[in-house]
Amino acid sequence: MTEVTMDKIVSLAKRRGFIYPGSEIYGGLSGTWDYGPLGVELKNNIKNLWWRIFVQDRDDMLGLDAAIVMNPDAWRASGHVAGFADPLENGKMFNTMFTTSVGTGVDAITVYLRPETAGGIFVNFKNVVDSFHPKLPFGIAQIGKAFRNEIAPRDFVFRSREFEQLEIEYFVRPTEWEKAFGEWQKNQIIFAETIGLALSHIKQVEVSPEDRAHYSKQSVDTEFVYPFGQKELWGLAYRTDYDLAAHAEASGVDLSYLDEITGERFIPHVVEPSFGIDRTVLALLVSAYAEDALGGEARTYLKFNSAVAPVKAAVFPLLKNKPELVAKAREVYGMLKKDIPQIMWDDNGNIGKRYRRQDEIGTPYCITIDFDTLGDPSTGSGQGSSLKDTITIRNRDTGEQERVSINSLASRIA
Ligand code: ATP
């Protein structure tokens, strides 16, 4: 059993270009993190899967990308100006919304950086309904940055001040919220499994009334056992008609929905599954982190599944000083990259070092082009042309190597 510590995760994430401390050369900025070349690929893979599964593959979902800065009246109406606050030690409440200003001089107004993406969905409810006339139940999904001036940012990206949410407001008839709530609770587990989170580390926990957000009548947190304890990964809340009713009242705009079947007009209720990408990335690093010994040598590897792995396969020429090997390897690399963009070229150091490096970033396959690939009987294994246009493909988890034809590679990796 590998002992997974935060030190190991944070150091691997930095060393291998997943996550760096924000503004590091200036001594950092508390609660901010920068995603490096592999971190952004990993994050995009998760976001794209999420969008595919929850938006594009369904007939009851519509997407949205609203502005981060909104008219501050929206945050007054939603209760965030009055109530989005955490207790300080002295017992006073501290509103965690960041403020900035829009405009110049006397016309400048104070605005907020959104503390959740949901706000943009509620204020566009009428726009989306008017454009698409969706039938209830239906959802509006959005992925984007959210900001909270957390009193005590900590535990790496778990609690940061700038983070990213993948949120769905799923609108239902008032009598149908429990069914939707149960479905989204299940969907969260299915998504966890799809991206490769360790299900043994996941627990769904009912949130007690005093711990619920001000807008929620029922909440279930999907929690994860991080190295620092079992804490929230994702949220699920029954927000009733709280938001739409409040925005209708404050804006004076009718946000009711006309049920064409029954002729009834009412404000839909909403169930909100909210996924934080940063906690997801952290949980995924913890789930994937493994140490073992391969061929008598200790190694660290990330056992990402292919769907989320930032690099799907790496291509090596056996030796980098043999132009004919490099040329053939470049050809294979170019061919694979056309269909599968997340392919890496690596010719640094010896093969053993390259394997270790790819293992540490979770690349499922390493492909080596050697003299046998060239089909030259005077070099390689001496089997000559029978191995022409074959390569070795190495499996990350077992270290086993197989000889397969170049033609079959793309379908294998895909
Ligand atoms: P916590 O209780 O841990 O502060 P929360 O209940 O305030 O979290 P929600 O308001 O439910 O969080 O936000 C939805 C999701 O957004 C969370 O499940 C989490 O994944 C993510 N999230 C919230 N706050 C942060 C943060 N400071 N840093 C990173 N992700 C966050």
What can you tell me about this protein's structure?
- With 414 residues, the protein is of the alpha+beta class.
- The chain has 2 domains: 6-286, BirA Bifunctional Protein, domain 2 (2-Layer Sandwich); 311-413, Rossmann fold (3-Layer(aba) Sandwich).
- It is built from 13 helices and 22 strands.
- The chain has helices spanning 6-15, 37-56, 72-77, 80-83, 118-123, 125-132, 177-195, 242-251, 277-288, 323-339, 351-361, 371-374, 409-413, and strands at residues 19-21, 33-35, 61-64, 85-87, 93-95, 99-102, 109-112, 138-147, 162-172, 202-206, 218-226, 229-240, 257-258, 265-266, 269-276, 289-294, 297-302, 313-317, 343-345, 365-369, 390-395, 401-405.
- The strands form 7 sheets. A 7-stranded mixed β-sheet has the order 3-8-9-15-12-11-10.
- Strand 13 and strand 14 (265-266) form a beta hairpin.
- The two termini are 30 Å apart.
- The mean pLDDT is 96.
- Adenosine-5'-triphosphate binds at residues 148, 150, 159-160, 163, 165, 213, 232, 234-235, 274, 276, 278-279.
